[in-house]
Amino acid sequence: MEYENSPFKVVIVGGGITGLTLAHCLDRAGVDYVLLEKHIDICANIGGAIAVEPNGTQILDQLGFYHDFKKKAHELRGWYYRYPGGNLTESLWPAMLKERFGYPVVSIARSDLLRVLSTSLQGDERIKLGVTVTVIDQPQPNGPLSVTTSDGTKYTGDIVVGADGVHSMTRAEMWRMANLQRPGLITEQDKKAIKVDYMGIFGLAKIPPEILQLEDSIVHRHKKWTLMVMPCYEGTVTWILSLRLDQPYFWPSVPRWSMDEAKAQVIAKADALAWGDVCLRDLWKYTAEPGVTPLYEGQLKTWSVGRIACVGDSVFKTTPNLGLGANLSIESAATIANTLRQLSHSTTKLTDAQVDAELNQYQKLLWDRFATVDWISQMITRRDAVDSIRCLITGFIMVKLPIDLAYTSAVDVIKVASLLHYLPLPDRARQALVKHAAKKRGWGSIRVLALCATVPALFLFLRFKYH
User: Fold this and answer.
1) Which of 111, 168, 252, 294 could bridge 164 with an S-S bond, Cβ 3.0-4.6 Å?
2) Which CATH number does the domain housing residue 137 bear?
3) Signal peptide: which range, if any (predicted)?
């Protein structure tokens, strides 16, 4: 058969940060692929900016993008929190993470990161722009998948990976095929695992130099809403106004706001302080293209079925409060790339069952840690929005602890982060490991006692509400 002699190939659906990262991972692994992206401009100015932490940066460094990436990024050293009443608290967890892992916590415009990832792919015949996927099917059992686009073109691959976001067509087709082949595998509860409690109004503001006096991120906590501001490259500031909705909503039945509705919310809170004398009205004034979006949260129970797998936002979402969303997406791309490289080395064509088992392993490697991040993110989001007396107490306790829980939580997430197994560990990461190993360990008896006594109590206090 022709298929028996054809090379292993992956079809990537979606050319955002996750899809482009996966394309580079597969290229470095020597795995053939084609990437299908529905937008003509892969670097469109969609969204504001994102935080990139060491678990994402070390993978970008493995792929050789660190220097180009850093040129467009702004390094953050502190993270400030302003509580109702005006009290300002500082956390130095970004600087502490740099010391621990060798990479800074940075902010970068989403479009700039996309440009860094896509520049070397310009003109590459494997990148197909302006292509919308409509159907994924499998003509024969144990055979390749066929991906049909809106213009009738068909692309064939051994594996299809959906990196096409929260409204993923790949995921919808995976569910459809699962219902035909394995009825009951995808439950209605799983389909509604992604929820929305908050609406986000955001933008990337170009601030005049005379009023730009912002070096680090500030989170302003108000009752039922939060204003976050974060400096970026060349005098820009990304901001997001997060507003509690009247009730929880579940995908796909989530509310949509028009720009007029978003503007009305901004006007109502126009005097909200951002930094210095700069208020929300100033951020809105200097933002050329503001946006509004539901802030999705949650994690699906099933990430792959048969020869289809989903990565990034198509299977897990966090709010911006924790700053880990893009990093986990980059990690998921690297993790599945390790699996796909292993599959590509098979000397015989693999059965559907064999492929399914290997792709399930990709999910198992990430599931528990990502679920923990999801829980922490939901807790922090509600704490930042002072969603209840319980959240106010939580914020107070976390500030008074003799340890920085933001730092310790981030360390727990990052120290076991995924890497590309077939590329060497970057020098920056290796040197940080050696330096950390040489240091004396232990926080001292007082801090250990505080952590042992307070964190379990806090966990039990909150788990019922947020898990």
Assistant:
1) 168
2) 3.50.50.60
3) none
381 and 330 within one domain: yes
- Are 45 and 63 in contact, with CB atoms under 8 Å apart? no
Q: For residue 130, is it within any domain?
A: yes
Reported as a single tens digit per residue, the pLDDT across 22-69 is 999 999 999 999 999 999 988 876 778 999 999 999 999 999 999 999
**288 and 431 part of one domain:** no
* Confidence tier at 237 by pLDDT (50, 70, 90): very high
DSSP state of 157: E
Confidence check: pLDDT of 375 > 60: yes
Question: Could you give the strand order of the β-sheet that contains 9-13, starting from the edge strand earlier in sequence?
Answer: 127-129, 32-37, 9-13, 159-162, 308-310, 304-305
**Same domain flag for 288 and 328:** no
User: Is there a single domain that holds both residue 189 and residue 201?
Assistant: no
The verdict on 17 and 165 lying in the same domain is yes
Query: Token pair of 419, please?
Result: 């890497």
pLDDT digits (tens, 9 = 90+) for 136-177: 999 999 999 999 999 999 999 999 999 999 999 999 999 999
- Each residue of 84-122: pLDDT tens digit? 777 788 888 899 999 999 999 999 999 999 999 999 998
From residue 95, alpha-carbon distances to 29, 54, 227, 377 in Å are 33, 11, 22, 20
Burial 171-209 (b: 16+ CB within 10 A, else e): bbbbbebbeeeeeeebeeeebebbbbbbbbbbbbbebee
Cα(first)–Cα(last) distance of the chain, in Å? 50
Specify the 3-state DSSP secondary structure of 81: strand
Among 120, 106, 130, CA closest to 42 = 130
Question: Do 170 and 68 belong to one domain?
Answer: yes
Q: Would 262 be classed as within a structural domain?
A: yes
- Euclidean distance between CA atoms 115 and 122, whole angstroms: 10
pTM of the predicted protein model = 0.91
Q: Do residues 437 and 318 both lie within one domain?
A: no
Range of the domain at 238: 195-297
**272 and 206 in a common domain:** yes
Region 238-246 average pLDDT:
96
In a domain, residue 228? The reply is yes
- What is the C-alpha separation between 74 and 88, in angstroms, rounded? 22
Q: How many domains does the chain have?
A: 3
Mean pLDDT computed over 326-336: 97
| Total residues belonging to the chain | 467
Cα–Cα distance measured from residue 163 to residue 174, given in angstroms and rounded to the nearest whole number: 13
Is pLDDT of 2 > 60?
no
